[in-house]
Automatic annotation (TrEMBL), chain B:
Record-annotated membrane-spanning stretches: 227-250, 262-290, 302-326, 338-358, 395-417
Gene Ontology molecular function, alphabetical: ABC-type transporter activity
Location(s), subcellular: Membrane
Organism the protein comes from: Psychrobacillus soli
Membrane protein topology class: Multi-pass membrane protein
Protein name as catalogued: ABC transporter permease
Length: 369, 424
């Protein structure tokens, strides 16, 4: 056991490059992305210089979440023609258009918001036309101070806090997605060892199978956990992500997620022959799991039933749900016990299958050589 | 000689089933998944499909409260026909009545919200029902409280309880926005009448703006989800070819095949060239198959074929250059580390930045700009620009990026390729 740990440590000391570069890249990318997620949307705006459109523009400029570049209409049309991923906005006195190549949720939200601004301004104009500026001041005061009635909103689930935080959702999504690779590399040593024959020699040595696997896997687990913790710490303390007092719960859930990813990679490794094959397959699985597990977009927008049912095979889904519930919705660890126990169950299952397959294949290799 | 080397590489690819699965089957599966899963989001046609279920729990009714309202008004000094008139007026303006019979049944709203009315319920049970997206509870004395606060200077604001499910945030937010606009409407008219303006004058003529759908120029078209993801996966999966080719090269070194090739008098440069050409050929074939899949299975109409040919060939050349470069690194370091980092990380980060997974410009324009400098991102932008029906010149601004990457890869491969043979 101790020997295995020492050997792995030595190995790490001699060839630290891959591990270090992967960890550093994960952390850097997490950092860059967290800046990108939730940052403001760049809007290219052109107006017809009418009073109304200028006032809409003025309000938009004050709003958080948009970085606004003002262009003339001709310039806007030209930019929209050349660039793929810009969002343009054409404001006229009585009409507006949102220019975008693809129709996304963000575009739809934006048009709703613009419409509201126009309507609010029209409302203001009408009041002023009817009763003058002083009336408007009065009405405005009434709007803020005297609500007709109050709608108290809370969550249907009594154990949850009513809250929406889209930025945290995508942050968790990308975190779980990227550490999937980082962690899975730690298991690839088995393939190296098999090729070089070290694996067979270890088996011939006087240690039990349990010690052999446990020693290796526990070492990989610890390394994986350290990488995961690094990413969480960067988020929590360097970027200052608000985790709604769920920091420790996040750490605990992530420690199970690391175990599940480890089990998945062990399973993949038991099926392939070379390291490059395993890394290709793992990177593909990570993408597929992230998609069906809701890391890139909230699962609600997926309408295909079959695709939704597939979320149960994705480790990312369990991680996402559990993390979202303990942070955004303020649930306790007890509330997400289903997801945690599913992670443990799947991990155990995959480790058992993985080891069984590995054992079978080693025997076959051995007899053929 | 070169052709037999290329033939050998091709055979290795074909005999291993895994590369075929990953280079061809995976993208096809992902394109299908993505274009069906996200079609409604990008194509804006199936909006109807999202319907939220709202339960309205009304603990009383106008009839039940009328008596108490009547006695309250009587205390204010109203009686006889004046009282009846006022009562009728209040009844017509009752917020709950308007919500139920005018807002929620209007065509715009009823497409999105299914209403269910209940008088008494076991709230605890209902809160656990996963099928329900929102519950609006109206307390038993809400109507009389509302009248007191809205028309008589009673400072207590009446309250309602709205419970929203967090299982499905989109549906919950539909309910929330309808209820919010209902509430704002009442607040507005209250503020107006307090200021002495009749609310009906303002609110009826309150259609201020019209949204004009984006006008497309002649020959231009929108990008549907299926096309977007076919291109996205096309550029992403081409990046896996180098990983396989360099993996085989390393295997050849380990199995001493490479040494035997060198002994047979084949120059190392020729070997590197064969990898370059194989990479290019495989990428061309792969992209052609995926484009044909898009054409015949998803029914995408590819236009601007001459420009497409230019861009696909350029991208394939880049893939070839990358194969040579990655092989060089693998042979230099004699380990699969480079390929691991590449497939594990570089491919995903590049695909992510290039927009293969979703339109990254929606999230951050900075990341999108960086993405246009990745080879796959530049290719994707170029292809999508052509498909939008724009003039073919648009691709020229993206090709330099591609050829800069190609030049870099080839240059590094030439400098670094081990010329004296490699021993494992």
């Amino acid at each position: 056991m101790k020997g295995i740990w020492l050997a792995r440590l030595q190995n790490l000391k001699r060839k630290p490059l891959v591990l270090i570069s992967m960890t550093v890249m994960t952390v850097i990318f997490a950092y860059v992305l967290s800046g990108g997620v939730g940052s403001s949307l760049t809007l290219l705006v052109a107006t017809d210089d009418s009073d109304m459109s200028n006032r809409v523009l003025e309000i938009l400029e004050k709003e958080d979440g948009y970085t606004i570049t003002v262009l003339t209409e001709a310039e806007l049309q030209k930019v929209m023609k050349d660039k793929r991923d810009k969002t343009g906005l054409l404001l006229r006195e009585k009409t507006f258009s949102v220019l975008a190549d693809t129709e996304s949720d963000i575009v739809r939200m934006l048009s709703l918001e613009i419409e509201t601004i126009y309507n609010e301004l029209a409302f203001q104009d009408q009041v002023i036309a009817l009763g003058g500026e002083s009336k408007w001041d009065e009405v405005e005061k009434g709007l803020v101070e005297a609500q007709s009635f109050q709608v108290n909103k809370s969550s249907m689930d009594e154990s949850q806090v009513f809250r929406y935080d889209g930025a945290l959702q995508s942050l968790f999504g990308f975190m779980l997605y990227f550490v999937f690779y980082t962690i899975s590399i730690n298991v690839q040593f088995i393939l190296e060892d098999k090729r070089s024959g070290v694996w067979n020699r270890l088996k011939l040595a006087s240690i039990s199978r349990f010690q052999l696997y446990f020693g290796h896997l526990s070492f990989s687990y610890v390394i994986g956990l350290i990488q995961m913790l690094l990413v969480i710490l960067v988020f929590r303390f360097l970027i200052g992500t608000n985790m709604y007092e769920g920091f420790w719960k996040v750490v605990i859930i992530c420690s199970f997620y690391v175990l599940l990813v480890l089990a998945f990679s062990l399973f993949v490794i038991s099926l392939v022959k070379t390291v490059s094959q395993s890394s290709v397959i793992i990177s593909l699985l990570a993408v597929a799991f992230a998609m069906i597990g809701g890391a890139y977009w909230p699962l609600e927008i997926v309408q295909s039933e079959g695709l939704l049912a597939m979320k149960w095979i994705s480790p990312v889904f369990y991680g996402m749900e559990a993390l979202k519930r303990v942070t955004i919705y303020g649930e306790t660890l007890g509330g997400v016990i289903t997801y945690i126990s599913m992670m443990i169950l799947l991990a155990t299952l995959l480790i058992v299958i993985g080891i069984t397959l590995l054992e079978k294949r080693t025997e076959r290799y051995h007899s053929s050589e | 000689m070169l052709s037999s080397l290329i033939g050998k590489q091709m055979k290795m690819l074909l005999r291993n089933k895994q590369p075929l699965i990953i280079l061809l089957v995976m993208p096809v599966v992902l394109i299908t998944i993505l274009s069906t899963a996200l079609a409604s989001v990008m194509n804006n046609e199936e909006e109807m499909a999202i319907q939220a279920r709202l339960v309205l729990v009304d603990e009383s009714s106008w009839e039940q409260e009328e008596a108490s309202i009547r006695s309250f008004l009587a205390k204010q000094g109203l009686n006889g026909p004046a009282l009846d008139g006022v009562i009728n007026e209040f009844k017509r303006n009752d917020p709950i009545y308007i919500l139920e019979n005018s807002i929620l049944v209007s065509e715009d709203v009823s497409n999105y919200i299914v209403l269910e009315k209940k008088q008494t319920v076991v709230l605890k049970e209902m809160r656990k029902d996963k099928e329900i997206d929102g519950i609006l509870t109206i307390p038993s004395n809400f109507r009389s409280n509302y009248i007191k606060s809205a028309y008589f200077e009673d400072n207590q604001t009446p309250e309602l309880e709205l419970l929203l499910s967090q299982e499905n945030e989109i549906r919950a937010s539909i309910i929330q926005s309808i209820i919010d606009s209902w509430q704002t409407g009442y607040t507005k008219s209250l503020a107006l009448s307090k200021a002495g303006i009749a609310p009906s004058v303002v609110i009826q003529s309150n259609q201020a703006v019209e949204k004009i759908e984006q006008v497309l120029e002649e020959g231009e078209r929108k990008i549907p989800a299926s096309m977007y993801y076919t291109v996205g996966m096309l550029v992403m999966f081409a990046l896996y070819t180098p990983a396989f080719l360099s993996g085989f090269a390393l295997q050849e070194v380990q199995w001493k095949v490479y040494d035997r090739l060198i002994l047979a008098g084949i120059p190392a440069t020729l070997y590197a060239c064969s990898i370059f050409l194989t990479g290019t050929a495989v990428a061309v074939i792969q992209q052609a198959i995926l484009l044909l899949f898009g054409r015949f299975v998803l029914g995408i109409d590819w236009i601007g074929l001459d420009a497409m040919l230019v861009i696909v060939l350029s991208y394939s050349l880049f893939v070839g250059g990358l194969s040579a470069f990655l092989t060089t690194i693998q042979l230099r370091t004699k380990s699969e580390g480079a390929s691991t980092v590449f497939t594990g990380f570089v491919v995903s980060v590049f695909s992510f930045l290039g927009g293969s997974f979703f339109n990254i410009g929606d999230v951050s324009s900075l990341l999108a700009n960086i993405g246009n400098f990745t080879p796959n991102g530049a290719t994707m932008t170029a292809i999508l620009s052509i498909q939008k029906g724009r003039e073919l010149e648009v691709i020229w601004s993206h090709l330099p990026v591609l050829y800069a990457w190609l030049g870099l890869c080839v240059l590094l491969a030439i400098i670094l390729f081990p010329k004296r043979g490699v021993t494992s």
